[in-house]
Amino acid sequence: PQFKIQIITFFRKSSRGDFVFSADRLIRLVVEEGLNQLPYTECTVTTPTGHKYEGVRFEKGNCGVSIMRSGEAMEQGLRDCCRSIRIGKILIQSDEETQRAKVYYAKFPPDIYRRKVLLMYPILSTGNTVIEAVKVLVEHGVQPSVIILLSLFSTPHGAKSIIQEFPEITILTTEVHPVAPTHFGQKYFGTD
Predict the structure, then answer these.
(1) Which residue, among 138, 6, 159, has the nearest Cα to 65 in the 3D structure?
(2) How far is CA 135 from CA 16, 126, 143, 174, 191, in A?
(3) Any stretches that span the bilayer, and where are they (predicted)?
């Protein structure tokens, strides 16, 4: 418990440079674990020295979808691991008073219904935004069972809300804590 509080305090009190550095490290870890969840096939790789190595390659049909704006912070981490992966975007804003999420924009690869989706949203607080994003993906033919949510911090309430609505979805996060650092996007992009 003490460690969890220190992480949130660090994110609140650190310089923007330290914040971005630490956030990028966490993003990379979550992205790599998300990629580990995707289907792969075995293949033989010939090394530059001519030796054969039995390795693996991702099956075709994966993509990322970032929930704008804070989800865009995770795109570079995904591209660093998978250079040619396609990335879609969803813009969802929550009403300040009602906390209802509303979709304003969605752009996906045209064949998203055939792809496995890494949904990127770093701070999962109430779950409302992610639930609306998953609804949009479902409207485009994506099955919840092929969606992997990549998140840095999640509240128990937010994760529970998503799982209640979409029990087949996979959620990967670095931290589950009752208090989520909701200022992530502002601090990461320097707009705080």
Answers:
(1) 138
(2) 34, 16, 10, 24, 29
(3) none
Tens digit of pLDDT per residue, the chain (192 long)?
344 444 444 556 678 888 888 888 989 999 999 999 988 889 998 989 999 999 888 888 899 999 998 889 899 999 998 888 999 999 998 777 776 788 899 999 999 999 999 999 998 988 999 999 999 999 999 999 999 999 999 999 999 999 999 999 999 998 888 887 777 777 778 776
The strand pair at 52-58 and 40-46 is best described as antiparallel
SS3 content of the chain, % helix, strand, coil (to 5): 40, 30, 30
3 state SS of 59? coil
Domains delineated in the chain: 1-189 (3.40.50.2020)
Backbone region of residue 127 per phi and psi (left: phi > 0; alpha: psi in -120 to 50; beta: other values): left
pTM, two decimal places:
0.85
